[in-house]
Amino acid sequence: MTTARTKSLSGAAVPAVQRSPLTDALLNRRLWLTVLGWTVAVLIFFPIFWMVLTGFKTETEAIAEPSLIFSPTLESYAEVQQRAGYAKFALNSVVVAFGSTLLALLIAIPAAYSMAFLPTKRTKGTLLWMLSTKMLPPVGVLVPIYLLFRDTGLLDTRTGLIIVYTLMNLPIVVWMLYTFFKDMPKDILEAGRMDGASTLQEVLYLLLPLTLPGIASTGLLSVILSWNEAFWSLNLTSSNAAPLTAYIASFSSPEGLFWAKLSAASTMAIAPILVFGWLTQKQMVRGLTFGAVK
Amino acid sequence: MNKTRTSGRTIGGLRTLSLQAPAVSLLFLWMIVPLAMTVWFSLQRYNLLMPGMTGFAGLENYEYLFTDPALWSAMGTTLLMVSWVLVITVVGGTLLAVLFQQEFMGQGIARVLAISPFFVMPTVSALVWKNMMMHPANGVLSWVAELFGLPAVDWFSSLPLTSIVIIVAWQWLPFALLILLTAMQSLDEDQVEAARMDGAGPIAIFFFITLPHLKRAISVVIMIEMIFLLTIFAEIFVTTSGGPGLATTNLAYLIYIRALLDFDVGLASAGGVIAIILANIVAIFLVRMVAKNLES
Question: What's one GO BP annotation on this UniProt entry (chain A) (predicted)?
Fold first, then answer.
């Protein structure tokens, strides 16, 4: 009785035969919710939509009266590609984001493994301490990092950025992997050990394949965070190692007509990350809130 | 069986140490070295433009900083930015979470659209808002204003702080929505149903069931946002450069000006120490909350 009632009230498909004033009211409610929900979603998404659209306009169309009707052109995309090394900035972003993610995973997997499967009294404290290093505001340590990088020649190098991003994301990566590993049934590893698997074999042949979805979403979150990071990239790079965040920032001093070009460059810079974000939104909550929200 | 277990434990202790060592030691260095250097520099007379003038300065940098009107203005700006963005994102995020929790047509896609801004890099969102939304001549907002017969607003010169708040809130509203939507999923439907049967209206249900259920998630959102919002940088860097005057210079941007534009290492470090202390006040509460959750 109660379950049937809950179902119809929450608006699940009701056969037309049962049409009654109650279901009519529900359909009406659903219609309004649809209109409201979509209006809000479209309004929030509008700047991104407009940017993508402007990227396909010519420069003159871009600053004309806002209009949805125009003949799309790839002119701006071509221009951005040719312009002083767009490819170089994109490559820097890819190398830095994926490089730091791989490095972070490599360091984090053994740590998360031991925390999940060989917990000691200190495990909880270590995890919390790692989390607390994330609370150090980057601007508080800007000066020493800048000077250290200057003196060691790491300023404006990809290696430098990879080091910073690896350490910046390490706590989140360890934390997320730890929660994924903990969800895995211990018996499987136990069975492997009985069959004489070494720790390395256990990790490589049992743990990693079984928790691959979790590792992948952890990696994607780390890529997203590194790709979008804009404090260190703006302060530690200038021309050689500048990733896309810094390249886009160079549009902040306008030169002539640049709206369509800015839009095209921005669209290319955010497109892959937007897709990654959509794919991992559910698991991302875990990493972003350190498991405090489930 | 028993034997393997005990020997496993001692070996386990050693293994734990070696497996965690790289992560722990690297993070320890990453935390302690720059922190110690910041504190050390903050007590030094150290300006890269005046190489001759070095030495121990005691609390001189702090003294100078605290008597500098720019610091107080930056603190005020930081506070205003953080509070406004928090109010907009938390209130808006809660309402949106309730809305997107309801079933409607194409709900999944609408949700994805609404959380998208969170994945846009800060420099892109700031420049898109600056040049395509808020531009006084050809921005969409001025075009809309014109439709209603209103004068166009020159956002960044007449309402600089509001403009930054709008941009940052646009980025963080989806974050609040994403977290709160997840928290909504554990809401007990039977409880809502029971309240409805007892004659509670949607508003009563929101205030007496939904909101108390979300309390924890909301406080997590507030704390995480505070830590990030305390040091907003890129959005200011590409739009107003802290101006006009000091109107949009927050603590992070002031430290950047002192360090990389004025090259005053000592003064910038003292500012850095203040930023660290502020962030830690918030962080203590957050870490405590996570710890509680880890136990249960």
Answer: transmembrane transport
